[in-house]
């Protein structure tokens, strides 16, 4: 028998933390193998994802968190896998790339029903248009796609077939394509990286949504070379990114949206380029990884000035690479994975100072624990890691060494080899209605959809808490008031991208919404050990 009631009940009871918590397999989607659910995306009160079943292959699924409410939306490709990806919410519908086995990988949409799941347009009738980099801007959906005539160019859609068009043939050479990437909304315009032509290479571009208003902002690397501008991150009223001007290597750059205001912030590595990446904002500063010839890849910080751009700490002293990555902000501190010269890849924390940057816990004393997929939930930080016993499993920290513990249930005998772990492919920890969802194999059922619920995340906590958001719709600023202390506010755009994060300790907060684009936003408010989710409309 594949399932064991006694075994599953044992799992629900085998919790390593004192607080009551629960692990539950939502549904065994693939009865004879791995369903491997991925790309979890919230939409219209439910969440959607790709999953593999023995009868339908990899297709679009939906769940309300219950077994009966976890269902196939549509068998898009009845002959095989639809291979969907890029799930993005736009104009109260879900957009993504998929193939029906006849038309190649094209732009699709779904309203959550089988009948309402349809291809928007066959952009490339002779093959795959493979749209990606979906970004909502100024009331439309922008993406990169290949129509086989122009190569990969910037496209735009209003959700209709007729309204899905190439915005501009940026690279006029037939079939070459601009390869538009890293689409980022900033200050009322859409910025991206594109290959204009041989004379300019891949540079920083900007558009206002019109063909005429789609222009190269600056030829950062003049001539035939490419600056390969990338990793665009809005910070403190400007846009920061990495680029190579041809003489200093890949370095930290900034733009205010003008050609003259597009400048290198600092030549961090004067030998070969510092390759800055992993940008994240904490306490009004911008943190990132960068490399120098003296210290290797380490944690850096900037306030936007040359003098204020400094290495935080040489985690792996001298020429070694600390290789910090997977940054997340939790309780006004920065958590990440890093190497030092004695402990391997472990969990680190920083308050932004050299003295306050340290390894939180040596999870795997004799090797690497490889912590990753950090997710803030229930006033704690959850992640996956390997302590050397059962491979990659479920962990939590409250920010202390003692409070960093493995919380996964015991693994069913034979369910996973010890060198991989029950959460070896938990590429996403996804919060939905006060639970965390992920794929795992704690039993002999294969990689399936599981959820974890902390006792503290109880919707009843809000019965005695009155929270108001006003005005709504909003123009320039709005307020959130509560009869309990507001601890934290998170704001997401319709694509699920976190655009605002701040911690508070007051009953009323004011938030400036001027930088937000017009549209719908999700506001998550933490108060009194629980979360409240509200919708915000920006006019």
Automatic annotation (TrEMBL):
Q: What is this protein called?
A: T9SS type A sorting domain-containing protein
SUPFAM superfamilies in the record: Quinoprotein alcohol dehydrogenase-like (SSF50998)
Please give the Pfam families that the UniProt record associates with this protein. Answer: Por_Secre_tail, PQQ_2
Report whether Signal shows up as a keyword of the record: yes
Is Signal tagged as a keyword? yes
Keywords from UniProt, A to Z, are: Signal
Annotated Secretion system C-terminal sorting domain ranges read 469-536
Query: What range does the record give for the signal peptide?
Result: 1-20
Any coiled-coil regions, as ranges: none
| Organism annotation | Moheibacter lacus
The record places domain Pyrrolo-quinoline quinone repeat at 53-348
